[in-house]
Amino acid sequence: QVQLVESGGGLVQAGGSLRLSCAASNNGFSITSFSWYRQAPGKQRELVASISSGDMIMYGDSAKGRFVISRDSAKNSAYLQMRNLKPEDTAVYYCNAFQITDAGGHNYWGQGTQVTVSS
């Protein structure tokens, strides 16, 4: 099992910045990929950004040009730097970790952190 703890959410004005962090507990296996998803009220959860162990990065359309995902494998952590935030970025942001062990692939989710952008 892997526990994910997110932090860094909060209330920010439009145009502002936030940095989300996701710390994964260590179960002896490396994290294959970290991803950030978000879910706004009444909407489906959507991919914001993803980064693999080889630092291959993918961004959802909403994040391109404004958000940057990174990871620190030594700390078993991932980060999402968000700039030029817009009211439509308001959502609960979830960290996801995908791990491959000798028992197969496993997806883990954090509890979510609220990001609210005021206009």
Describe the structure.
The chain has 119 residues and is mostly beta strands. It contains no helices and eleven strands. The chain has strands spanning 4-7, 10-13, 18-24, 31-39, 46-52, 57-59, 67-72, 77-82, 91-101, 104-109, 113-118. Strands 2, 4, 5, 6, 9, 10 and 11 form a seven-stranded mixed beta sheet that branches. Strands 1-3-8-7 form a four-stranded antiparallel beta sheet, with no helix packed on it. A hairpin with a 2-residue loop joins strand 9 (91-101) and strand 10. The radius of gyration is 14 Å and the shape is elongated. The termini are far apart. The mean pLDDT is 95.
Multimeric state? single chain
Percent of residues in helices comes to under 10%
Provide the gyration radius in Å.
14 Å
On the 0 to 100 scale, the average pLDDT is 95
Q: What does the largest sheet look like?
A: 7 strands, mixed
The chain-level structural class is mainly beta
Pick out its properties.
119 residues; mainly beta; 0% helix
Question: How is this fold's topology laid out?
Answer:
Layout: E1 4-7, E2 10-13, E3 18-24, E4 31-39, E5 46-52, E6 57-59, E7 67-72, E8 77-82, E9 91-101, E10 104-109, E11 113-118
Parallel strand pairs: 2-11
Antiparallel strand pairs: 1-3, 3-8, 4-5, 4-9, 5-6, 7-8, 9-10, 9-11
Describe what is shown at a glance.
The chain has 119 residues and is an all-beta fold. The protein has no helices and 11 strands.
